[in-house]
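Chain particulars:
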Amino acid sequence: MSLPAPAWRPRTGHRDDVTWYTPPDLPAEVAALALPERAGRRAGKVGLLEVDLSPVGGVTRAVRHYQRTPLFLFRPIHVDPARPDMAFLYLLQSGEGMVHGDRYRIDVRAAPGAAVHVTSQSATKVFRMPQDIATQVVHLHAGPGAVLEYLPDPVIPFAGSRFYGRTTVTVDPGATVILAETLLPGRVASGEAHAYDLYWSEVHARDPDGRLLFADTLHLTPPIAHPGSPARLGPYQVHATVHVITQQAPADELCNLLAAALAGAHDVLAGASELPAGCGASVRVLGMTSAAVAAAVRTTWDAARRRLIGVPAPDLRKG
């Protein structure tokens, strides 16, 4: 079984087009660091992952799958006893991490009625870069009645690294998307606390007609403005954001619910706010340790799940 090629994916030749895996509209500050694409010049690699998921026989299955290393995917598994129909996908990356010139693109499409959870096997390391940048673009599409969760492990930028990420989410009014991202300070044991050159992460959410619902940007340049300033991370080292994009509950109710769930979180500073256009709620978490922030992210995920799909967050046994 296969789905027709969606409108956002050209039918042929797209994977060899540099604008497919590197946005042509990079911010000027990022574009100034990126070396021009030329034949024969690539220290890094192009990693591609495309997967379409749809209900088949009462469970969600991958009905279309393409991958190009260094990105690859295990076969979807069904591990949530409360939602046995939900497909869990573990994203893997060959090698030890991202290097200069790496260009990654990930596309996940949840068809109407699909239930999908996407995570990663381990944190994404971004190594020191003598030139160029590393980029990752993610496109998530949730059709009517779909539930799509994208909760990868944290990003760890090493000293001297440069990373640009953009996640674009297309959400049907009848769908629910839970999206999280976590930034660690680097190799703290080696004295590298926010010693990277650039970390730029964007999230854009749109409706099926392409109208922007909201945009969120985390832009840190430690050599220019240290993240420890009061207007940025302050005394905290770890940053996480969780976006719950849905119209299955009033935005104000969802915001209050998440704030109440986080009231008992330990060793973090956390807050919840309504997203524009009544499309959900967003949570920001700051903490000194990855464990404390990860616990707060899980609390948020669990509370949102219980309210929106009526089941708790499962134990993924990832350590």
